[in-house]
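Exercise 7b. Backbone tokens:
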């Protein structure tokens, strides 16, 4: 059973990886979708605000009722997981395109319209295919893709969730959107602050923010109902940007797949040896850290599989079957 929340940002959103932010240097591209720990932290804090619990009381476990059962103790991992992070536009849900999906094209598509009429080819080849081509790998069977012109990955593209259950996909209008058609990137200038949160004279930094386009919202799924009543406001990501949230009364429906070719994750997954062994295809992994409010210090850095990575099994209950 999953509980879904719709998040509507009231301004830009700021998500960053592990790259240092030095005064005078340009910042790296924003991290989107963000690691699930960012969403977990925002939802946990939103529940505290709904229940009128101060952070000082929460830190000392001086709370009543079921707060600890719902969101865990301060400093501990959340007792719930974020299993999906989708974007909704005009009532249609989009997920990051599976990393195993490619199109055969002579030129790199520039916009969503360039994908219309293109058929998806996949990198789910068998070990026999590799052996027939004289390819041997010490890491086990390789995932291969063969194209007449050039296999173009769908990195940065979003597809309707209905396509994930189809065993033959040819893109039509609206089936695929590029990231720029769902959100824009804005450069912002900020001021440096010290450990006492006072301005550091002469230090400015630049940061790239995400702004969802008009009519685009985020849908987040948790693997249990964490007690948020809503609607309300929460702070999400760096610089504590404000989003409106409410629980979605009608949950998204994913079509069943009789014989899955793999499982695609709908939210970033923390990387470990188990997941590496089950990986079929993925985009570039990201590294992030974050801030530990309970300790007042940086969290240890963690490596993440991006949403859209494909595995041989449903890891962390954050994947759905993939027909193609």
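Sequence design result:
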């Amino acid at each position: 059973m999953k509980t879904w929340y719709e998040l509507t940002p009231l301004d830009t959103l700021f998500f960053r990886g592990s790259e240092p932010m030095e005064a005078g240097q340009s910042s790296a591209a924003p991290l989107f979708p963000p690691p699930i720990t960012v969403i977990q932290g925002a939802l946990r804090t939103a529940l505290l605000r709904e229940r009128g619990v101060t952070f000082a009381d929460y830190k000392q476990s001086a709370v009543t009722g079921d707060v600890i059962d719902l969101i865990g103790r301060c400093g501990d991992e959340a007792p719930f997981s974020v299993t999906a992070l989708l974007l909704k536009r005009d009532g249609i849900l989009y997920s990051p395109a599976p990393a195993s999906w490619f199109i055969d094209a002579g030129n790199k598509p520039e916009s969503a319209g360039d994908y219309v009429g293109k058929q998806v080819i996949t990198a789910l080849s068998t070990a026999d295919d590799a052996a027939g081509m004289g390819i041997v790998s010490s890491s086990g069977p390789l995932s291969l893709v063969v194209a007449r012109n050039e296999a173009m990955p769908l990195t940065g593209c979003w597809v309707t969730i209905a396509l994930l259950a189809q065993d033959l996909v040819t893109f039509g209008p609206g089936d695929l959107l590029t990231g720029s058609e769902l959100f824009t990137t804005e450069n912002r200038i900020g001021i440096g602050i010290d450990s006492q949160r006072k301005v550091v004279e002469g230090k400015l930094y630049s940061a790239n923010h995400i702004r969802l386009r008009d009519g685009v919202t985020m849908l987040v799924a948790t693997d249990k109902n964490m007690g948020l009543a809503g609607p309300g406001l929460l702070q999400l990501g760096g610089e504590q940007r404000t989003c409106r949230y409410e629980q979605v009364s009608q949950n998204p429906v994913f079509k069943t797949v009789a014989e899955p070719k793999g499982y695609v994750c709908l939210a970033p997954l923390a990387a470990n040896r188990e997941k590496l062994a089950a990986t079929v295809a993925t985009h570039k992994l990201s590294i992030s850290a974050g801030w530990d409010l309970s300790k007042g210090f940086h969290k240890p850095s963690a490596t993440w599989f991006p949403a859209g990575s494909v595995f041989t099994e449903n890891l962390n209950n954050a994947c759905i079957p993939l027909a193609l």
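Instructor comment: Residues 191 and 197 are 11 Å apart (CA to CA). The chain has a mean pLDDT of 84.
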